[in-house]
């Protein structure tokens, strides 16, 4: 007769062999922890397989012997082997025969166990009396003794012993019976939807760590090893975060699973098992109670807390603190985690829809899964942000606390937060009062109740933020909006009223698109759009533009009608006067996504683009119009309309005679042929709550090919229509985008035909066409099919060898980097040598080429110059090359001529000198003298010749910079360097000293450079013309040469750093001087702080004397604006800082606070925390200590992470000054969200 929650013999006596082994395996695992076993237990599931005689073995795998048997002796001390038999009652001879193999010897595995003094256990799933059991034990012992194995211990378990063992574990009882009430076993629990869906839950670092801690608690290892009573764990977090799933995954292992019972706390509270577990000292269980309030947790903890045979895990949405050995708080998941869950569970859902669900679910996996489930079940649903099971919202809003607020009150008070993206609730009393009044909350609730509900939802995480509150869970917001509008839609009129604060109105505009599937909202939007006077003469009135943009997603047709009435009649000049275009552009971009509204919206965007007045930004009228023509498809397509249906708009622009139309059309053409992605515009495929538009997808690849082909032909055909700047733009579009398009054989013929035509065009540089072709052949063609690759290789040869001009352009003009590749270098060298041969044989060939040849700066140009010199034995080319300089600009490269002179200088020593004399006497040619003399003979002689020419006044001082190359190559002697340096110092001008700094950096940075002349260099580095405000040198940004020269000088002798630092600190903040560059401050002062921080600190704080220098030093110490991982303040020992501040805390405390690095630095909190503890009662310290670098530009994710970090730091600190400051910074961060 069964009595309560227990097994009886009949429950197991009829087991089939496989089921019997499974039961026994579970029983061993349930008992294993009592014997200290935490490893895998081997059980052969096929007990009829010949395996040496042992069907299950339990022994220590961790090299720690089991010195204590479990409480029932199911697992005896030492090594134990089990023989499991089902079926009829075994006779004594049956028991003996189980020991023997076919040869009549003891089976090998039995021999191993008993010979080592282990335990042999015969398990039968039949009923035996005590006498029958003893007889069979004796028979087994006799058989072993006869065979010479009498060291082992023999035991036998029949059904009555097995039932007794199993009745210790309620989890096993529930598993192998149909008893109801008091809980379920882990197998039944695993069938619950929360444990089945998703099939694979994301394994974040936080969840992995939580599971490891829970398992350690249950095993009493690591920091829990001293627990000698019931281990208690509290798992808390808002509903829908996967708390129960985390606990299930933690205990779903044989080490724990057979002891587990799971039940709802309310149902468990008064059940018979709850009492049995308390009074029956043989019972062992891991009790998991879901939806357990804090009061219930305390009661169960008091009830079971002293029993080491039990473990208690309670799960709750109540975040209140309660006594436990381990508290796990489960927070919302990151967007990427939700994306991974949805992608694995619903691979058929498009990636952009997965991304959308992951965003609006706001970290709640259950919410995200419900959205995806509804989407896959019925894709005809009008809204994709609503779920079919609204009870999820009830659980999300109100937890299982006994003192939780009433659900109806929570919904009512939270409804305003559904209509606004964010509300400044705490800091802005006028906003809060307006909300309470507009939503008539005081008619039902007092201020105290309203505040309590808001705080409750903040604590639950439903409302995000400290002061600026946001209901970010869009499905919940939509649910609350729908409920409110079905009761009373007039609330929308109350919001869209002149009394609504502007910021709230903007916040409403962000949220209202999510009501675009609610009938009442759609009707209101239609009426409001048509009845409101939205525009003045130059754009939207007041602050209502964002609301219009929001309503464009609710009723796009009506919004387009209003925009057509306003913009349609306007001329271009009137359109140029329209300011604040952003809401108009964003509205049109969202409207254009729909096929029914595309052309109306596109035509208005075109008109605005032709009247562009915001060309500083990519996402301007032109940019957004061009984006409409993107060739991308699927989730990246800009509209539902097919590309060739959009083509006539582009054709109209490029075939017109209007220059502005050409500009706009070419932007669109570039968007197409570059095959680049969308440039933004509000992510138009996300249309509030509506399903994503049916964005264009090609039926076959030919549709895209046709689009590219027709647009390419359109651009080429109209080249003659374009003005110069638009001609260059069109040319760039064709030449810069050909590589991607040439990958397919369909477009190759038209590209090659275009290139042939361009070579015949008088305004096209042949080198541009040849370079574009060579880029395809060199970088891409190896991946092409053989026929296509050969086509491009032949085409390159064709256009290169067309005539002497094209060959010269191909191998000399521009930076034709493809020729520097290893596989083509040899042929290039041959071609250049051949060209040189042609030129020396017929110099007239280059007469018309000299202008661009002198300007060419490619390496190939230098190679050609050298090859020409080798062949120009009579130096006939010198006069030709020299005369060609008259037609080029003074800044021409002259690389070819310089290489030519370098090559001939040894064979004809007088030739260069004669050339240079002629150049000095020519007012235009003298511009090229310094470069050519240096290039021809990079030596002391060339340096002296340049210096003499400067000293004689023939060339400007700045030309001395040509000597830097000689210094860099190691051909400048120290004597000549010092001679030039002395001259430049004596000039006593900013220009001269700046030249010296650059020259010295080149001279001393060589590995074989002599020691730095410290007097000369320090004098140059700190020259008043560079440091003082009267400086004639405009210094800004990095001056790399000054910094590196200073580094070398300080490295040579650290005391030089103080000689350099003094003048720098004395002139900090001076505009147009090196003292105004933060990097220079770091270069000079950092090595001093690293060498002797206490001495250097005394020098640094001298800079606090004036405001301009103080601001610079504070910023440098804090590491703001400096590319360094370690802010300089972290180099100063804290004891030095505190001693310095303590002299005058009121003045120096705020100064030090401003030197603390922003919170992204690892060392931030140690200093910030200590300064708040020491000086946090000084108001200016609290005010000046920053957590975020001022002027920084980050996205919402960065601000949220920083807010979360600050909240964690606040929870860990008990100091009131620290907590007060962190709370203030959290409010500041939230203003950015």
Summarize the structure.
With 1233 residues, this protein is mainly α.
Can you give keywords for this protein?
about 1250 residues, mainly alpha, Trna Endonuclease, Chain: A, domain 1, Rossmann fold, 5-stranded mixed sheet, 5-stranded parallel sheet, about 55% helix
Q: How would you portray this structure in words?
A:
Helices cover 55% and strands 5% of the residues. By secondary structure, the chain is mostly helical. Among the domains are: 9-166, Trna Endonuclease, Chain: A, domain 1 (3-Layer(aba) Sandwich), CATH 3.40.1350; 173-329, Rossmann fold (3-Layer(aba) Sandwich), CATH 3.40.50; 335-381; 724-839, no CATH class; 840-936; 1133-1233, no CATH class. Helix 26 (545-552) runs parallel beside helix 29, helix 38 crosses helix 40 and helix 50 (974-987) runs antiparallel to helix 51. The protein is globular and about 130 Å long.
């Amino acid at each position: 007769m069964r009595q309560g929650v227990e097994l009886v013999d009949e429950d197991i006596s009829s087991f089939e062999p496989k089921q019997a082994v499974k039961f026994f395996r579970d029983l061993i695992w349930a008992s294993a922890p009592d014997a200290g076993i935490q490893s895998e237990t081997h059980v052969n599931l096929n007990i009829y397989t010949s395996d040496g005689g042992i069907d299950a073995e339990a022994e220590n795998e961790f090299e720690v012997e089991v010195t204590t048997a479990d409480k029932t002796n199911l697992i005896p001390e030492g090594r134990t082997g089990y023989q499991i038999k089902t079926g009829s009652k075994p006779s004594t001879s049956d028991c003996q025969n189980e020991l023997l193999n076919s040869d009549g010897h003891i089976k090998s595995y039995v021999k191993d166990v008993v010979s080592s003094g282990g335990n042999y256990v015969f398990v039968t799933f039949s009923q035996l009396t005590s006498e029958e059991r003893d007889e069979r034990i004796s028979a087994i012992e006799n058989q072993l003794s006869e065979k010479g194995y009498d060291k082992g211990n023999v035991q036998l378990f029949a059904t009555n012993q097995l039932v007794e063992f199993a009745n210790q574990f309620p989890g096993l009882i529930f598993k192998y019976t149909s008893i109801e009430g008091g809980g379920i076993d882990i197998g039944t629990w695993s069938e619950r939807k929360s444990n089945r869906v998703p099939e694979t839950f994301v394994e974040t670092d936080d969840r992995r760590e939580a599971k490891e801690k829970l398992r350690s608690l249950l095993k009493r290892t690591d920091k829990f090893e001293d627990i000698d009573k019931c281990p208690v764990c509290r798992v808390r977090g808002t509903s829908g975060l996967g708390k129960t799933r985390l606990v299930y995954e933690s205990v779903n292992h044989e080490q724990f699973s057979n002891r587990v019972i799971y039940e709802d706390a309310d149902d468990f509270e008064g059940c018979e098992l709850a009492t049995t577990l308390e009074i029956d000292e043989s019972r062992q269980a891991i009790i998991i109670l879901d939806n357990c309030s804090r009061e219930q947790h305390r009661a169960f903890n008091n009830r079971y807390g002293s029993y080491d045979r039990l473990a208690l895990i309670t799960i709750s949405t109540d975040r209140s603190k309660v006594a436990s050995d381990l508290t796990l708080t489960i927070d919302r998941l990151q967007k990427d985690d939700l994306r991974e869950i949805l992608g694995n569970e619903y691979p058929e859902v498009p990636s952009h829809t997965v991304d959308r669900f992951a965003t609006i679910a706001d970290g709640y996996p259950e919410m995200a899964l419900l959205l995806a489930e509804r989407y896959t079940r019925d894709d005809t649903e009008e809204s994709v942000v609503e779920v079919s099971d609204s009870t999820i919202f009830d659980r999300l809003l109100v937890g299982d606390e006994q003192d939780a607020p009433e659900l109806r009150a929570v919904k009512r008070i939270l409804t305003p937060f559904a209509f606004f993206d964010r509300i400044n609730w705490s800091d802005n009393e006028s906003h809060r009062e307006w909300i309470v009044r507009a939503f008539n909350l005081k008619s039902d609730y007092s201020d105290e109740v309203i505040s309590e509900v808001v705080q409750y939802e903040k604590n639950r995480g439903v409302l995000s933020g400290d002061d600026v509150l946001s209901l970010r869970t869009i499905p919940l917001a939509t649910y609350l909006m729908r409920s409110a509008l079905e009761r009373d839609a007039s609330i929308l009129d109350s919001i869209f009223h002149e009394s609504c604060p502007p910021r709230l109105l903007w916040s409403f505009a962000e949220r209202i698109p999510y009501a675009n599937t609610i009938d009442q909202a759609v009707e209101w939007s239609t009426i409001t759009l048509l009845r409101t006077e939205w525009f003045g003469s130059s754009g939207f009135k007041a602050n209502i533009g964002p609301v219009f943009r929001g309503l464009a997603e609710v009723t796009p047709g009506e919004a387009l009608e209003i925009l057509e009435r306003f913009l349609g009649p306007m001329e271009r000049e009137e359109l140029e006067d329209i300011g604040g275009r952003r809401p108009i552009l964003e509205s049109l971009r969202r409207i254009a996504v729909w096929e029914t509204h595309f052309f109306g919206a596109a035509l208005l965007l075109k008109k605005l683009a032709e009247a562009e007045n915001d060309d500083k930004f990519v996402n301007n009228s032109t940019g957004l119009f061009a984006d409409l023509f993107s060739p991308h498809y699927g989730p990246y397509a800009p509209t539902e309309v097919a590309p060739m249906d959009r083509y006539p708009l582009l054709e109209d622009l490029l075939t017109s005679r209007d220059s502005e139309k050409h500009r706009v059309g070419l932007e669109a053409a570039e968007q197409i042929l570059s095959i680049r992605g969308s440039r933004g515009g509000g992510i138009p495929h996300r249309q509030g709550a509506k399903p994503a538009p049916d964005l264009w997808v090609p039926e076959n690849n030919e549709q895209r090919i046709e689009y590219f082909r027709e647009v390419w032909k359109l651009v080429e055909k109209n080249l003659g229509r374009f003005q110069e700047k638009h001609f260059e733009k069109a040319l760039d579009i064709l030449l810069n985008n050909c590589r991607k398009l040439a990958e397919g054989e369909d477009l190759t013929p038209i590209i090659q035909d275009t290139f042939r035509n361009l070579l015949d065009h008088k305004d096209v540089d042949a080198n541009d066409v040849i370079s574009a072709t060579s880029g395809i052949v060199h970088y891409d063609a190896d991946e092409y099919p053989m026929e296509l690759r050969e086509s491009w290789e032949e085409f390159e040869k064709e256009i290169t060898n067309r005539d002497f001009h094209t060959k010269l352009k191909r191998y000399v003009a521009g930076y034709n980097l493809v020729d520097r590749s290893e596989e083509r270098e040899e042929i290039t060298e041959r071609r250049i040598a051949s060209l040189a041969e042609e030129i020396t044989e017929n110099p007239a060939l280059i007469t018309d080429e000299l202008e661009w040849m002198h300007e060419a700066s490619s390496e190939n140009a230098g190679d050609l110059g050298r090859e020409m010199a080798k062949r120009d034995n009579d130096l006939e080319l010198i006069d030709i090359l020299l005369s060609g300089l008259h037609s080029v600009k003074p800044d021409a490269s002259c690389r070819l001529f310089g290489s030519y002179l370098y090559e001939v200088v040894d064979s004809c020593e007088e030739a260069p000198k004669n050339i240079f004399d002629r150049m000095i006497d020519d007012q235009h040619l003298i511009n090229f003298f310094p470069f050519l003399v240096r290039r021809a003979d990079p030596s002391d002689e060339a340096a002296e010749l340049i210096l003499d020419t400067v000293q004689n006044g023939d060339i400007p001082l700045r030309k001395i910079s040509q000597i830097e190359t000689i210094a860099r190559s190691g051909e400048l002697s120290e004597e000549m360097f010092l001679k030039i340096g002395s001259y430049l110092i004596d000039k006593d001008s900013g220009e001269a000293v700046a030249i010296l700094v650059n020259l010295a950096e080149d001279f001393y940075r060589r590995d074989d450079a002599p020691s730095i002349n410290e007097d000369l260099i320090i004098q140059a580095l700190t020259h008043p013309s560079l440091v003082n405000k009267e400086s004639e040198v405009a210094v800004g940004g990095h001056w790399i040469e000054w910094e590196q020269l200073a580094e070398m000088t300080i490295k040579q002798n650290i005391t030089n750093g103080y000689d350099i630092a003094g003048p720098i600190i004395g002139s900090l903040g001076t505009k147009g001087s090196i003292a105004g560059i933060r990097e220079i401050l770091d270069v000079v002062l950092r090595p001093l702080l690293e060498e002797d921080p206490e001495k250097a600190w005394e020098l640094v704080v001298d800079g606090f004397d004036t405001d301009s220098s103080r601001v610079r030093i504070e910023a440098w110490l804090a590491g703001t604006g400096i590319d360094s991982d370690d802010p300089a303040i972290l180099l100063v020992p804290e004891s030095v800082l505190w001693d310095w501040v303590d002299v005058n805390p009121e003045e120096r405390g705020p100064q030090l606070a401003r030197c603390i690095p922003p919170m992204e630095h690892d060392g931030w909190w140690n200093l910030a925390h200590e300064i708040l503890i020491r000086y946090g009662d000084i108001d200016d310290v609290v005010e000046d200590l920053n957590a975020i670098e001022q002027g920084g530009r980050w996205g919402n994710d960065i601000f949220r992470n920083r807010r979360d970090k600050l909240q964690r730091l606040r929870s860990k600190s008990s100091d009131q000054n620290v907590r007060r400051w962190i709370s203030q910074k959290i409010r500041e961060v939230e203003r950015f969200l």
